[in-house]
Amino acid sequence: MEYPRLGRSGLRVSRLIYGNWLTHASQVEADAAEACVRAALEAGITTFDTADTYANTEAEKVLGRALAGERREGLVIATKCYWPIRPDGAPQDQAGPNDHGLSRKHVTEALHGSLRRLGTDYVDLFQLHRYDHDTPLEETMEALADLVHAGKVHYVGVSEWTADQLRRGHALARELRIPFVSNQPQYNLLWRVIEPEVVPACAELGLGQIVWSPLAQGVLTGKYRPGRPAPEGSRATDTHGGQSMMQHLLKDELLEKVARLRELAEEAGMPLHHLALQWVVQQPTITSAIVGASRPEQVTDNVRALEVELDEDLLARVDEVLGDSVKRDPSLTRSPQRIAEFG
């Protein structure tokens, strides 16, 4: 395991980060989730990514219990806020008017809630899960500055912001003297929309890229086959969120190309998911990739992807197979105009 610095900061994160979106308290029971976290620690993963919205705060609780007893200084714990959080037991559409967004009220209360659930006095990285068009950016960044200066947050970052939004946020962070160090975008062989604008902006600003969905929700494992139903128990059959997130990836035309990628990977002596993961982490602009798991052996197996080598010929053949199936349009990096649409 390598531990690169996050952007231009002094914070070192593991090359693979363990994340619990769509798994803990959703697809995976608590005992299995804790076993996955244990496997991650044993494999050298020191960085853990979660968010208050995952399983409506339950994922943070599971992660907090799984990490209890670990030496806190040896961990990097990252969480996020923005999306609606509803009171315990309330229906999905009954979040309160201030239970979402990036107002001073919600950012402050969200962080304190995350600290309680995670069982820690501080988080190493607190990220804004999307850009809030309804709240002045100055208000959001000043709230973050207060949390940093109070010692409750060490570093701040964002997720799925455009290049212009990143530049505006970074300028305010410099004025407020807080360490704005990371961007968390979606990025994989099929989804490269950050390359034209976001990647150059992050390089200019000194932001590290912690990317999510490096395996395209599992599609780049090759387990979804054209013309066949999704495997039982897979993310595509998860009615708690995975199924709806994956529909655009389960088209036969795309799955046929992924099947050809699988053949290329096997010819090169590796499984497809190792090829896909290594492709992401070897990009010079990427700091780390977030991986999830429903079983401990998946964690161990994903770490082995760091050992494979991809030569230029293989990379060229991969791009040839995928062709115009790769999404590159930078306008696809966006936040909802009105969060109420998602409440």
Number of helices: 11
The H-level CATH homologous superfamily, spelled out, is NADP-dependent oxidoreductase domain
Helicity level: 25-40%
Shape: globular
InterPro entries: K_chnl_volt-dep_bsu_KCNAB-rel, NAD(P)_OxRdtase_dom_sf, NADP_OxRdtase_dom
Family: Belongs to the shaker potassium channel beta subunit family.
GO molecular function: oxidoreductase activity
Domain NADP-dependent oxidoreductase: 15-321
Q: Mind sketching the topology for me?
A:
Layout: E1 16-19, H1 30-42, E2 47-49, H2 58-67, E3 76-81, H3 104-118, E4 123-128, H4 137-149, E5 153-158, H5 163-176, E6 180-183, H6 198-205, E7 208-211, H7 242-246, H8 252-267, H9 272-281, E8 288-291, H10 296-304, H11 312-322
Parallel strand pairs: 1-2, 1-8, 2-3, 3-4, 4-5, 5-6, 6-7, 7-8
What does this structure look like?
- Pfam families: Aldo_ket_red (PF00248).
- GO terms for molecular function: oxidoreductase activity.
- Belongs to the shaker potassium channel beta subunit family.
- It is a single chain.
- By secondary structure, this protein is an alpha/beta fold.
- It has one domain (16-342): NADP-dependent oxidoreductase domain (TIM Barrel), CATH 3.20.20.100.
- Helix content is 36%, strand content 11%.
- It is built from eleven helices and eight strands.
- The protein has an eight-stranded parallel beta barrel, surrounded by six helices.
- Helix 1 packs parallel to helix 10, helix 2 packs across helix 3 and helix 5 packs parallel to helix 6.
- The protein is globular, with a radius of gyration of 19 Å.
- The N and C termini lie far apart (39 Å).
- The mean pLDDT is 90.
